Automatic annotation (TrEMBL):
Pfam families: GARS_A (PF01071), GARS_C (PF02843), GARS_N (PF02844). The keyword Protein biosynthesis does not apply. NCBIfam families: purD. GO terms for molecular function: ATP binding; metal ion binding; phosphoribosylamine-glycine ligase activity. Belongs to the GARS family. It comes from Candidatus Erysipelatoclostridium merdavium. Residues 107-313 form the ATP-grasp domain. The keyword Ligase applies. The gene is purD. It catalyses: 5-phospho-beta-D-ribosylamine + glycine + ATP = N(1)-(5-phospho-beta-D-ribosyl)glycinamide + ADP + phosphate + H(+). This is Phosphoribosylamine--glycine ligase. Its EC number is 6.3.4.13.
Length: 416
């Protein structure tokens, strides 16, 4: 079988790595892929936003399955376009992807289907927003409606800061139009956890837990990032949450998909806040998490190709999804300056012979025959073992060895 992976990050490298272990997969293509993926497949230049080019490529190359990594092509209807051309896609339709593409749509879905979430109000103008502030206490959560690459959520402590943020988003257009509509939301306390699941729209299968570290510096300080590292299992998740998630979140979610006739075949990544064992949904993402996926894939014992085809063909109930009991850590090596601006094109050294770690490429490129940095998150060092201590030791050993100017990473992945 021939598989096409859409995307260029560590998440896509981890997906390709796992698909490459399938006996059924003979050839992996990626658009645009990265130098790590290029070692196990063929990378083809192109934009993840060019639906026409991607569909044509998949047709011309008789691709059996296209796996869509990032949210932008999903929200652009890539899965719909592939299906319309008679091709199999792993990833929800454009309509279902609106669960991530619009916070207001997503909140409305949650309320209508009794999925626990924070109280909110949708506002469509700055004046309406300022008026609505009075209905909330501080801290107040302000969310741009549209996709904003992780920059769309701001938590403010007072009226002045609320007005300033609302003006930037709604009047000045700071987020390229993503903030012309805004959701104001009650601030929730508790601890955050992500729940990733495979679904074909009828059956939903949770993956093993993973803990992401979102803030850039040790001790959860500094600005939010896409994620600086993950461990699986999530050491902070209390016992017995699986049943609570099933009853309080997954059952109403699946009932909601059915009631709204939403064709959802792919991964749903549910961001949760948990207090006193009560989960509330912060957000839906319509894709794998990055870097959650890098840890989770190393715990999957079943054939990923079979699972993805089962999602795409609505036969997920017939496949066994098996996980191992190992511990996994994934550590992000980042470029100085991330999540702000950072230099690119810096040579990466000592990346060969990384002992028993798996190194996924996240933001790398080849320049003049050399491996160089090309993103804020550069490499994801992952290790598998029998304890959290063991995998932490392994990833930090390799993190020290690999070298590029401006390299930095968090030292407390997996710790409280
Ligand atoms: P979201 O993209 O909606 O998940 O929001 C990004 C981050 O903002 C979350 O991971 C939380 O850390 C924080 N956040 C979002 N909504 C809330 C809320 N209602 N209460 C507290 N924190 C929140
Ligand atoms: N690691 C968080 C995300 O993928 O959205």
């Amino acid at each position: 079988m021939k598989v096409l992976v859409i995307g260029s990050g560590g998440r896509e490298h981890a997906i390709a790595y796992k698909l490459n272990q399938s006996e059924k997969v003979d050839k992996i293509y990626a658009i645009p892929g990265n130098p790590g993926i290029a070692k196990i497949g063929e990378c083809v230049a192109g934009s993840v936003e060019d639906n026409e080019m991607i569909v044509k490529f998949a047709k011309d190359h008789n691709i059996d399955l296209t796996v869509i990594g990032p949210e932008v092509p999903l929200c652009n209807g890539l899965a719909d376009d592939l299906e319309a051309a008679g091709l199999m896609a792993f990833g929800p339709t454009k309509y279902a992807a609106t669960l991530e593409g619009s916070k207001a749509f997503s909140k409305d879905f949650m309320i209508r289907h009794n999925i626990p979430t924070a109280r909110y109000k949708e506002v469509n103008s700055y004046d309406e927003a300022v008026e609505a502030i009075n209905d909330f206490q501080f801290p107040l959560v302000i969310k741009a409606d549209g996709l904003a690459a992780g920059k769309g959520v701001v938590i403010v402590e007072n009226v002045d800061d609320a007005k300033k943020t609302l003006k930037e988003m709604m009047v000045d257009g700071s987020l390229d139009g993503a903030g012309s509509k805004v959701v104001l939301e009650e601030f929730l306390t508790g601890f955050e956890c992500s729940l990733l699941c495979f679904t074909d729209g009828t059956t939903i299968v949770p993956m093993v837990s993973a803990k992401d570290h979102k803030q850039v510096f040790d001790g959860n300080t500094g600005p939010n990032t896409g994620g600086m590292g993950t461990v699986s299992p999530n050491p902070f998740l209390p016992e017995g949450m699986d049943e609570i998630f099933e009853k309080e979140i997954l059952e109403p979610f699946m009932a909601g998909l059915k009631a709204d006739n939403m064709d959802y075949r792919g991964v749903v990544f549910i961001g949760l806040m948990i207090e006193n064992n009560k989960p509330k949904v912060l957000e839906f993402n319509v894709r794998f998490g990055d870097p959650e996926t890098q840890s989770i894939m190393l715990r999957l014992d079943s054939d990923l190709y079979d699972i993805m085809v089962a999602c795409a063909t609505k036969t997920l109930k017939d496949v066994e999804v098996k996980w191992n009991d190992k511990h996994v850590a994934c550590l992000v090596l980042a470029s100085q300056g991330y999540p702000g601006s950072y230099p690119k094109g810096i040579e990466i050294k000592n990346i060969d012979d990384c002992d028993d770690c798996v190194v996924f490429h996240a933001g790398t490129a080849i320049k003049d025959g050399k491996l160089v940095t090309s993103g804020g998150r550069v490499l994801n060092i992952c290790a598998t073992g029998d304890s959290l201590d063991e995998v932490r030791e392994k990833v930090y050993k390799v993190a020290n060895k690999i070298d590029f100017d401006g390299k930095f990473y968090r030292n407390d992945i997996g710790l409280r």
